[in-house]
Structure prediction request, 563 residues.
Amino acid sequence: MTLASPPLKKLINAVDDFVTEELQGLEAAHPDLLRIDYENNVVLRREPTRAGKVALVSGGGSGHEPLHGGYVGYGMLDAACPGAVFTSPVPDQMEAATRAVDGGAGVLHIVKNYTGDVLNFQMAADLVAGDIEVASVIVNDDVAVQDSLYTAGRRGVGATVLVEKIAGARSEEGGTLAEVTDVAVQVNAQARSMGMALTSCVVPAAGTPTFELPPDEIEIGIGIHGEPGRRREKLASVDEIARMLVEPVLSDLPFTSGDRVLAFVNGMGGTPLIELYVAYNAVNKILRDNGIEATRSLVGNYITSLEMAGFSVTLLRLDDELTRLWDAPVHTPALRWGR
Amino acid sequence: MTAALPQAEGTGLMSTALLEQWLRRSAARLADVTPFLTALDQAIGDGDHGTNMNRGFAAVVAKLNAEAADMDPAGILRLVGRTLVSTVGGASGPLYGTAFLRASAALADRATDVDAALDAFDAAVGGIAALGKSTAGQKTMLDALVPAQKAARAAHERGASGSEIVAEAAEAASAGSDATIPMLATKGRASYLGERSIGHRDPGATSSALLLTTAAEVVGGQAG
Prediction:
């Protein structure tokens, strides 16, 4: 039996124009903050990098909006390189971005730990070697993946947003490349995440859901590319689901009684805020039961997987310095305060 | 330019014309199997391998049309490598791109006889292994390429003809691709699935086998 494939029910003109038209929209909506280099497919701040400021470049597949283009602006990134949907960008993009934003103080590449992202950023760094000083931080906060000889290592997920914000603040106040890199590494080292999906998602070029999830099942331990997770569970209450995510996060670092944390409840793109706040409430109860205080929070769709429903929990252990850098002014399309 | 061609045209294994024919036919085959590769990648990856390979090889064909006129085999392999790095994305872009760039470097300034072609293939496979920090048995493209490499060497030592060597390499690559089905992935995105990666064919090994099968068709057709 063959079935005609269903129509692509998305706000889209043509699959091939999807990412370009998104960039055009981003630029049209935020002309005060950013501009797009369409030849190289790079999102840049509107103003060139201040001489002497360390520049931050990140990038990855599209479909995770607002990551990364929505974080270009004061206090976060200097440039973002979007690939095709769920596909790492190519080295030419990161090379162009790195050359465009270098202010003479060096460039930090913020790379999520996926084989493709790591290889393409590495090739870009090789292409500018000798011209520009480049440092890299690999974000790998996802506790759903065993970090062992038997995997490509842990994926970079929610902590990426926190790394970009906090390292961005450190570079804005004049940190050297070594100092900005150190704080980025520190945020990654103090943060852990885990996510779940209620539904799958449809990559436009594929046209069909990446995985099939029966109505009464959920996927635990997903990444951000619609890749299936570590295991399936029966649908459960949000209190129970929150426990499935938070407990592995707490035991991994481990977070302990007396810790202060930034609690980040992130929507995967298709979950309404009312559910995300219900989820935050569930997460916060578990934290309190463990003697952990959420002194900062972030709730919303910040690193997504197209229209997937579900959420991830990221906890970052805070100290006074990380708190100060988190609170520092930021003005980007997707995060703005203090300015 | 033409000075490089006589030796290149003489071997029946790595001539400019055969290379171009192989690349164009591979691009057409990849366009045909894009939905199949995508479905394989949806099962254990992120569902982009088919479209990425199709985009990259379409760009290769465009480059061949525009720039390949007077190139020797090493020049064409370099052009392909750079194009794939710049257009494919994902992990496949750097990996396949590096393979072609390494093959080009291994071939430079050499007569394109069977020995040189096998050295170029070794360099290509070695480049993938080095960049991916991977070996055969981890459910990757190397599971098609490494058996193909061994089969090609064995056939050559036996004194097989160029077309026999490529045919045996392609057969080994297809068998290697089949053998990825029961494997546990320990590299690449499928490794995130752990045990759940078992029972699925690896998309990268599949595209590698397709490239070698197409090469066998092209070389075999020329010989026959």
In short: Chain B has a mean pLDDT of 89.
